[in-house]
Write a structure and sequence with these properties.
MetI-like fold; about 75% helix
Length: about 325
């Protein structure tokens, strides 16, 4: 196992390097740029353009720009935001706690609901409960996140006035746990309802495939209780597809949910990415893309390692 992990880590290095090159090139060739905001200003002269391009380092050849960014990235100097002139690393660490707070709650809620619901729908296949859950999961899977978020705001924020419309806390109010939790409900519900559908469907399908296998019949024949058979044997083997989905969800803990954070005015990484994209703030965009791509690669590696624990038949060399 250790040899496999080391080999995968070595293979990840050129992959991450290639991702950084491609993402850097794509950002540079996209229309607009950090100087696009000045193009409609009649007082903006060519001398001003040359001065700003030199200040931002945009007048250098593209390979030199990439090497400068990459060397700084490795040493912890991720550059400065074109818009706010703050260090990119400090901007990310400023927004990261809010994203961890939101996405961590979503992560826990989805897992706590998806596992029991997925198991029950498999054990009660074609029952009324299964039909209701199947209809609900397909409904939420086909619902756009932005539409669901706006619907929840209209119903629970504007019509019923039960919950705040957005933000992470009431502006100007002292810290209050209840106030923080009330602000958390709508964005968590928006993301969790959509994610819950896919998690439940994958776990249900995997459980249905697992509960009919011979090793479970053998476990029952040995006198093991049904709860032990289902939870210790069936669920452990059926969890492999769920592990894959959860591993792909892990990067969202750090990079946030772009659409949801924008709708609810949540001051996290997703909103930071949105603001940077609208301003063509290349250093911030590149920093977030580098973090997310690294997390995706290592989350997949973690999932591969967990496969061997969940299914003893899987062997790594």
């Amino acid at each position: 196992m250790s040899r496999y992990i080391v080999r995968r880590l070595v293979q990840a290095l050129p992959l991450l390097l290639a991702i950084s090159v491609v993402s850097f090139a794509i950002l540079k060739v996209t229309p607009g740029g950090p100087l696009a905001a000045y193009e409609g200003n009649p007082n903006f002269t060519d001398d001003d353009r040359i001065r700003l391009e030199h200040a931002f380092g945009l007048d250098r050849p593209l390979p030199i720009q990439y090497l400068s960014w990459f060397s700084g990235f490795l040493t912890g100097d991720w550059g400065y935001s074109f818009a706010s002139h703050q260090p990119v690393l400090s901007l990310i660490f400023e927004r990261l706690p809010a994203t961890l707070y939101l996405m961590g709650t979503v992560f826990l809620v989805v897992l706590l609901l998806a596992i029991p619901i997925g198991v029950l729908t498999a054990l009660k296949q074609y029952s009324a409960f299964d039909h209701v859950v199947t209809g609900a999961t397909f409904t939420f899977l086909s619902t756009p996140t932005f539409w669901l978020g706006l619907l929840l705001i209209i119903v629970f924020g504007l019509d019923l006035r039960w919950l705040p419309l957005g933000g992470i806390a009431t502006s100007g109010a002292p810290f209050d746990v209840g106030d923080r939790l009330r602000h958390l409900i709508l964005p968590v519900a928006t993301i969790a309802l959509v994610q819950l559908g896919s998690h439940v469907r994958f776990l249900r399908a995997s459980m249905l495939e697992t509960i009919g296998q011979d090793f479970l019949r053998t476990a029952r024949a040995k006198g093991l209780g049904e709860r032990v058979v289902v939870l210790r044997h069936a669920l452990k083997n059926a969890a492999i597809p769920l592990v894959t989905i959860v591993a792909l969800d892990v990067p969202e803990l750090f990079v946030g949910a772009l659409v949801t954070e924008q709708i609810f005015g949540w001051p996290g990484m997703g909103r930071l990415f949105w603001d940077a994209a609208t301003r063509s703030d290349y250093p911030v965009l590149q920093g977030i893309l580098a973090v997310s791509s690294t997390l995706i690669v290592f989350a997949n590696l973690t999932a591969d390692v967990l496969y061997g624990y969940l299914d003893p038949r899987i062997r790594y060399s």
